[in-house]
Amino acid sequence: MKVLIIGSGGREHAIAASVAKSSRVDKIYCAPGNAGIGQIAECVPIGAMEFDKLVAFAKENQIDLTIIGMDDPLVGGVVDAFEAEGLRVFGPNKAAAILEGSKAFSKDLMKKYNIPTAAYETFDDPEKALEYLKTAKMPIVLKADGLALGKGVLICNTLEEAEAGVKEIMMDKKFGSAGNHMVIEEFMTGREVSVLSFVDGKTIKIMSSAQDHKRAKDGDQGLNTGGMGTFSPSPFYTKEVDEFCKKYVFQATVDAMAAEGRTFKGIIFFGLMLTEDGPKVLEYNARFGDPEAQVVLPRMKNDVIDVMEACIDGTLDQIDLQFEDNAAVCVVLASDGYPVSYEKGFEIKGLENFEDKDGYYCFHAGSKLNEEGKIVTNGGRVLGVTAKGADLKEARANAYAATEWIDFANKYMRHDIGKAIDEA
Known about the structure:
This protein is α+β, with helices and mostly antiparallel strands. The chain is 28% helix and 28% strand. It has helices at 10-20, 51-60, 71-76, 78-84, 94-101, 103-112, 126-133, 159-171, 239-259, 293-296, 304-313, 392-403, and strands at residues 2-7, 27-32, 42-43, 65-68, 89-90, 120-123, 140-144, 153-156, 182-186, 191-200, 204-212, 215-217, 221-224, 229-232, 265-275, 278-285, 327-335, 360-364, 367-369, 375-377, 381-389, 411-412. The strands form 5 sheets. Strands 10, 11, 14, 15, 16, 17, 18, 21 and 22 form a 9-stranded antiparallel β-sheet that branches. Strands 3-2-1-4-5 form a 5-stranded parallel β-sheet, sandwiched between helices. Strands 6-9-7-8 form a 4-stranded antiparallel β-sheet, sandwiched between helices.
C-alpha cells in the first residue's frame, strides 16, 4: 500500500520509521518532510496547511492511507477535507481536534464530566483577567487558549509576573490569535508524565508512558521549548496511577467526547501531573507528542498500520497493543540559542554512524539538503538521538554515547535528560 505522512519534524520521522517496518507498505510519501525523512520516504513540497494540494496529491497518487502528524492541520480540519473526498486518513476530525485546539474547551469538558484537573477560570477580556488575579493564589499558570507551538503556557510566581503575562498573551498577542482567550489555572506540583493512546471513537488502548523535558537548560532552567528530550517508560507511572487513570481519565475522556457529538478517532496524548491528591490532567494533545513519539514508537511491537486502520474502522478492541520490555531515551540536539534565536545552514556530520545499528535512531527535526546535496541544520531542534536499553539507565547511557557520533556547528543539548530516573 501507499502511505502519505503530513509533517516535517522528528515526530513525523519516527512515524515514517514505524511505517517503513510494516510489511504492508511499499511506498511512503511525506509532505513536506525533511532530509532525514527523505532517506526512507519521498518528500513532496506541499505545506501541511495546503489542504487542497494535499488532497489532490493523495487522489492523483492513489494513496491508501494518510497519517496526520501535526496539530495545526488537525485543528484546521485536514481530516474533514480528506474524508469529504472519500480518502482514508488517520487523525481526529476538526470537531474532535478541538480537544487540543482550545484549552478552554478541554477544561470545560473535564469539569462537566468530572475528569480530574486543576481548578481554573477562562477569560476573553484582559481587564477581567487582571481583576481576577488580584484575588488569586500564587504561583499561578496562564495558558493561551489556542495552539502556540507548545509555548503558550506561563508559570507566574508573583502578581507582577502574572499581570505581565496577561499583557503578553492577551494584549501584545505574543502567541497571535491563540491569546484571544486565556485560561488561568491553579499551579499544581508533582511529577509530570505523558501517556499516549490510540482511540477508535469508543475503545482506547494505552501506549507506554513517557516523560518530556521542556526547559531549554539543565536542571529545568531556561525557557520552555518544544521538548529537549524524553524517556520511556516513566518509573513514576506506577500500577496504581495506571489503574486510577483507566478508571477516571482515559475512557472517561473518550466517552465524554462521544457524548458531546465529537467522536474522537486517532491519538489522544494525556499530559498528567501526579499530585498529592492523585493524578490530574494538565493538557490533552490530539496527536503524537514530539519528542515522545521518538521513544514510544521504537518500542511498539505491533504493525503501526494495523493499529491505525483499526482506529479508523472502529475495531481497536480487536488489537492486542504490545510494547517491548525495555526502555528508550531521546536526547535532542538543538541549535545553540534555541528557542529564541539561532543560526542555520551548518553541515551535519556523522549521520552514517547510525546506519545498521540496532536500537539506535537519529530522528531529524530541523534538517534539509542544501544545494550541494549536504544535510544541514534547518531549525532550532535539529535531531532527536534515541537509543534503547534493557532499562532506563542503560538506554540513557547509550543515548548520550550516540550524541557524540554527530557533529555540527552550534550543537547544543541538555546533559540531564532522564536524570530523574536515578531518583525513582
